[in-house]
Amino acid sequence: MNPSVVADCKEGDLHLIGALQPLGALVAVRIDTGRVDYCSANIAEWLGDTPDGVLGRWASDVFGNAWPELKRLAESAGSNRIGQIELAAPVTAVAHRRGEHYVLEFEPAAITDPEWWDEAARIDFIGRLSHAYTPKGVAEVLTSAIAAATGYDRVMVYRFLEDWDGEVIDQCCKPGVEGFLGLRFPAHDIPANARRLYTLNWQRIIADTESANVELYAAADIHEPLDLTFAMLRAVHPVHIQYLRNMGIRGSFSVSLLVEGRLWGLVTCHDYSGKALNCVERLAFEEMARLACLHLTNICRLETESLRSVLRERLAVMSRALDPAADQPKQLLVGQLAGLQNMLEADGVRLRWGSEEHCQGELPDADGLAALDDWLLQNKPGVSSHFDELPKPLRHHDNLRFNAAGVLNLHISPKCELLAVRKEQIQKVTWAGKQASEDAEPAPSLTPRSSFQAWAQNVRYRAKRWGEATLEIAEELREALAEYRQAARHKELAYLDPLTGLANRYAFEQAMADRISHCRRSGERFALHMLDLDRFKPINDTYGHVAGDELLKTIGERMKTIARREDVVARLGGDEFAIIEWYVAEDEDAAAQAVRIVEAISEPVMFGEHRLDISASIGTAIFPTHAQDATALLEYADRALYLVKAGQRRRA
Questions:
Q1: In 130, 280, 288, 598, which residue has its Cα 20 to 30 A from 81's Cα atom?
Q2: How many CA within 13 A on the CB side of residue 222?
Q3: What would the DSSP string read from start to end of 155-189?
Q4: How far is CA 602 from CA 562, 590, 643, 652, in A?
Q5: pLDDT for the residue 180
Q6: Nearest Cα residue to 173 out of 149, 150, 156
Q7: Pairing mode, strands 19-20 and 214-218
Q8: ∠ CA(190), CA(145), CA(139), 5° rounding?
Q9: Torsion angle of C-alpha atoms 52, 58, 61, 67, degrees rounded to 10
Q10: If we measure between CA atoms, which residue out of 358, 306, 348 comes closest to residue 328?
């Protein structure tokens, strides 16, 4: 075996292991020259010539009349084809092309069509699959069919979970044979390098865990190991052999189950006395698995598309409710938070819009949210992100563990984010054997367990997984909210005075029209206050435009503070301001508000070391007492302001 691969089961290139199981022999022929570059140590049993007599020779000389047929079989890239060939004796040849070589494997001659997999059996199998409507149902069809055909002591369907842990979802066991139904196996039982090979080469036979492997030899000028990715008889790593021995298993066979190109699971067969399936049988089981995978793919697609359909309808309903042209687009979105929570199937959501935060549902406390925000800022700055398991640095926050073990953070714009959280769901998991602690120092090495006795554990810090469909809709939601935020921002800029952030003249006129229309229907009253600063020009001339701008911004802030939430505060231009005071019961109420406005504005303003003394004049008009349309109301308020400035009335 290749020492570098054997030394590292977890990371080694298992396809370069450099050895074969003793079920057959192997020869690799270089495609461009036709020279034999590799052969197995037992090749004499199949060709009647030793490795020294085979390596470096032309394949046409080694195989004679059989070479054209072998070459034809091997022309298939990345998949095996079989044929019956006459060498020293009749054999079954399995061949494929990989990289620069034709890879030829030889096994004892096998019948071409197993009786249990003829045309009638295929039709019956497909019929049974058509009545399986869940992955569990497909697994039941597979285990029963393979167990009946092979006679293995235990046949299981092992499904991979999102974190690559595996769980047995169905099994067929002979009487007295221990089962593993419902038990969980850790991801490191089948590490990533092994899963990659299962994705490419669908089957793996181990006829006898007690048999010795056969080494591969290379020609003298060859120094690279042969790529055995698609070899049917590739040797298995010693750690995996020991793993099976610890289970008491002597013979094993597995077939991959792939859905949408991803390793979904394995059909795994175990036998306590050793069992060899010939290559024709193994390919028949692979065909059976591929048929099951087609049906599994359709089931999974249907489940996903059904969920997508529901989520898209929820998104459409929300999108129809959001109108960026509305008076208050932020408040409109805040009103949709319950719908957003429902759409994302979250326990709580938080909308961050500028400096404001709006919450819905159950969220972590302030300390927990602050810790989560810091973590997101450090690890996922400015991007959308999610996790289903609370990161270790956050686990000391109990409130986060309870309320935000799962997080989906949608980055909408630099000042707008939607955070969705899911609560911790403590899972009681029953493992096949006790697992090594993930936190152990040093990290536990990849060694097979000695016991597979059921061991229960409460798995914490995890939430319901953000599924593929939910994440896809979340991205569509993020894009929709980004467009909404941008449109609202454009509207905001069109309606706001850029210096003070108050409503501009256009927004003020629109608000006036809306208020008058409403009051004509309802009979309510409102006041219009027109305000002009006194001695603003001398300040501007003396201290410059920067001081003037700072003064105007301060005045704007003071006016927003004195006004009520439903009032409209506007800067009409220069040092001219206005307030629409909503709902005035008595004329005296409007007069009292005018006094408060002037008093608030008249407080001194500091610009650096300079004290700026300012005052204001104000004119008030009440709808419908003083006028009954916008033009007349403005003229009345302007006239009142002029009289104040001319000294014919009090300044407020």
A1: 130
A2: 21
A3: EEEEEE-TTS-EEEEEEEE-TT----TT-EE-GGG
A4: 13, 19, 19, 12
A5: 94
A6: 156
A7: antiparallel
A8: 50
A9: 120
A10: 358
Length of the chain: 652
DSSP, collapsed to helix, strand or coil, labels residue 107 as strand
Q: Which two tokens stand for residue 403?
A: 């309320």
Residues 6+ positions from 592 with CB-CB distance below 8 Å? none
Is the separation of the CB atoms in 28 and 39 below 8 Å? yes
The span from the CA of 312 to the CA of 476, in Å, is 9
Burial class of residue 36, CB neighbours in 10 A (0-12, 13-18, 19+): buried
Query: Is the pLDDT assigned to residue 651 strictly greater than 50?
Result: no
Looking at per-residue pLDDT, the higher value among 450 and 188 belongs to 188
* Whole-model pTM over 0.85: no
**Residues whose CB is less than 8 angstroms from the CB of residue 232 and which lie 6 or more positions away in sequence, other chains included:** 80, 94, 105, 201, 203, 205, 279, 282
CA pair distance 313, 622, nearest whole angstrom: 48
Q: Is 362 helix (H, G, I), strand (E, B) or coil?
A: coil
Residue 424 banded pLDDT, cuts 50, 70, 90:
very high
Q: What is the pLDDT of residues 464-495, one digit of tens each?
A: 999 989 999 999 999 998 888 888 777 767 77
Q: Pick the closest to residue 336 from 323, 354, 355, 325 (CA basis).
A: 323
Residue reference for tokens 């701008």: 549
Query: What six digits make up the tokens of 310?
Result: 């529901």
User: What was the pLDDT predicted at 77?
Assistant: 66
| Beta-bridge partners for 431 | 184, 455
Question: Is the Cβ–Cβ distance between 142 and 270 less than 8 Å?
Answer: no
Q: Tell me the average pLDDT across 505-528.
A: 91
Residue 90 to residue 72: CA distance in whole angstroms:
18
Residue 60 has pLDDT above 80, yes or no: yes
Residue 249, pLDDT score: 94
What are phi and psi for residue 57, nearest 5 degrees? Answer: -90, 165
Q: Is 8 helix (H, G, I), strand (E, B) or coil?
A: coil
For range 7-20, the mean pLDDT? 84
Strand partners for 573: 576
pLDDT, tens digit, for every residue of 625-650? 999 999 999 999 999 999 988 874 44
Mean pLDDT of the region 32-57 = 95
Q: Are 283 and 82 in contact (CB under 8 A)?
A: yes
Residue 526: is its pLDDT beyond 80?
yes
Q: Give CA–CA dist 616/598, Å, rounded.
A: 6
CB 404 within 8 A of CB 364: yes
Beta strands in 435-567 (DSSP E): 454-459, 526-534
